[in-house]
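Re: beginner question about structure tokens

> Can someone show what the tokenized structure looks like for a real chain? I only ever see the sequence side.

Sure, here's an example I had lying around. Input first:
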Amino acid sequence: MKPIFPLDPSLKYFCENAPEYHIVCAGSLLGIALRKPLSFPVGKVNFLTLRPMNFYEFLLASGEEMLCEHLSGQLPTDKVSALFARQLEDYLRTYYITGGMPEAVETWLRTKDINQLEAVQKHILNSYELDFAKYAPSKDFPKLSAIWRSIPQQLAKDNSKFIFSQVKKGWRAKDLEDALEWLISAGLVYKVAKIEKPFLPLAAYADESYFKLYLSDIGLLRQLAVLSAGAIL
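And the corresponding structure tokens:
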């Protein structure tokens, strides 16, 4: 089968002329965020956003249906039963190490080998940076990489917010805002704004100039921070 490029207009004609076929395309959001398509099949495509597994999904992948059933019946204010607490803590520490990228989780569950797990995580991180080089204008590639690599450092410090000047000396917010927006649009980082008051809707009380950045996956964040699995265990 010939590869279909992101948002290929041929999807429109499949929909109109051959609706009996179900066409599924997968790809990096980075290609959409950084590379503007020439055309778009409006109304002919349904989007599904696939994110890393959360802790509940990690438990399901680990075959722990009973623990999942217990958690699904809990309210945030409920105390976790001592019968399950230790087991959940152990799995949570493991989740901090593996994160929720499907290949990383599958590798860990199949091998229980930290080295093989981390090889997968490093490969994913390297692939992201190769995507930066592929899709970003050459002048913006250094900015994307610098923001990306600065996230663990900034989270490790006592900063109350993300500080642009700590990405690289001399750089200011106006120099980096476009690159930051690309990373957010691509789903690689989450921008978490400070909320002035705990009222609904939260967005109305968000200070967008006062925020922190997090990687979309905790396992990749650990790997990018070069934090050993032993430090968590």
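Each token stands for a local structural state, so reading them left to right follows the chain. The first strand starts at residue 189 and ends at 195.
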